[in-house]
Amino acid sequence: MCSCCVFLLIFLVASRRVVFDAIPMVCDTGDVIISNRQIVHGSFANTGFEPRITANFGFHKRSSVLNVKGAGIHSEAAVYDDDFIK
After folding, report:
1. Residue range 4-19, pLDDT digits in tens
2. Is residue 44 located within the same domain as residue 79?
3. Residue 13, CB half-sphere, CA atoms under 13 Å: how many?
4. How far apart are CA 86 and CA 80, in angstroms?
């Protein structure tokens, strides 16, 4: 079991939020996991000499963002109009 799964299990037991139907994702160095971006996750601190890299990608349906004004959290607030999306 990877450190991510162990941490999650300890957290869930300690917080009394055990999810009995949860499926641990056992992974090794170099593995890639594709999951829902809202998955409950966690891992222990990286104590090795090699950096740990995480790349998160999220996608929204065009219809869910077209003509919606972004909150400006990661960039200037803007309306996601057709030109902006292109």
Report:
1. 555 555 555 555 555 5
2. no
3. 6
4. 10
Same domain, 64 and 51: no
Q: From CA 82, how far away is CA 85, in angstroms rounded?
A: 5
pLDDT by residue (tens digit) across 45-58? 778 888 877 777 77
CA dist., res. 27 & res. 6, Å (int): 12
Helix, coil or strand: residue 9: helix
Kindly state the tokens that stand for 54: 């995480």
- 69/81 Cα distance (integer angstroms): 9
pTM, to two decimals: 0.40
Owning domain of residue 23? 1-55
